[in-house]
Amino acid sequence: MKHLLSIRDLSAKGLADILALSQAPAPRVLQDRGVALYFEKPSARTRNSMEMAAAQLGGHPVYLQPAELGIGTRESVEDVTCTLACYHAIIAARVFDHGLLEQMAAVNIAPVINMLSGTDHPLQALADLLTIQQLLGRIEGARVAFIGEANNVARSLAEGCAKLGAEFVIASPDGYRFEGPGIRQVADPDEAVEGADIVYSDVWVSMGDEHSDERRAAFEPYQVDEALMARAPGAWFMHCLPAHRGEEVTAPVIDGPRSAVWRQATNRMHTARGAMLWMMGATLELGTSNGEEETESGAGLFGRAGHVDHPEMASD
Q1: Superfamily of structural domain 7-121+267-305
Q2: CATH architecture, domain defined by 122-263
Q3: What are the residue ranges of CATH 3.40.50.1370 in the chain?
Q4: Three-state secondary structure call for residue 162
């Protein structure tokens, strides 16, 4: 049984397979089956992308909130997991504590997918990697500069880059960096973006974190503005959203011709579909069984989503 709790749990082949399945026609492997979507933290992109991805695979997504399950309070984690597995082919959860996902996966009765935890955001990393592949025509050898806090988004993207041969560097202020070795970390944003193909930013204050003058002061030198992007003239700008214009990024950058944020957002749906296909044991060789109908739901949709965002891409 395949679970997807973090990018580091994947092999390089498994990661590449998910990206390939994300761009393939969608066999209806979840036809008339449920997909449980448990949300401790709300989300626009995660809920919409997962619900649409499940529907494209023939499944029926069911949105669940903490008060409905009472997980760990009214019922044990194991009992809730077994109950959900009675009705659903996949259990997806967006939680504060990554340990809850590990407990659910340990029951090993249904595939468990992490829609976000305090330490990891594998679904965002999958969309990011697919976007990089589309923008550059490759992932191997790409240089990704992340400007901001060493958070769950940065961790998952860094792990994905390492597995697929991309270079990842993060610029963060003191107190907001990764602990331990393994990821290149610098203090100067100018140094980070030198030679970058991708410049990536995220909010200064994540959901559930406290706003503070001290935090804002620490991150003010890490705004991605036109001057910083000028130091990487060939780079694309990426952001996982939601964005706060005037804080971590200026409006001319995120709304400008070098921004790929809406392609990223669209790819959340395609890579969610690819991840669920991989978890259900699908391979590219399996193809589809419903012919034209499934080509429309899978490859057809991908074709529409894989649009040219900017004039520069049309000339490539």
Answers
A1: Aspartate/ornithine carbamoyltransferase (3.40.50.1370)
A2: 3-Layer(aba) Sandwich (3.40)
A3: 7-121+267-305, 122-263
A4: helix
Q: How many CA atoms lie within 13 A of 84 on its CB side?
A: 33
Evaluate the CA torsion angle 302, 166, 159, 14 in order and state its sign. Answer: positive
pLDDT single digits (tens) 179-197: 988 899 999 999 999 999 9
Residue 75 makes CB contacts below 8 A (sequence gap 6+) with 69, 83
d(CA 21, CA 26): 8
Per residue in 103-154, pLDDT tens? 999 999 999 999 999 999 999 999 999 999 999 999 999 999 999 999 999 9
Q: What integer is the mean pLDDT of 164-177?
A: 97
User: What CA–CA distances, in Å, run from 253 to 130, 145, 237, 310, 312?
Assistant: 21, 15, 7, 13, 15
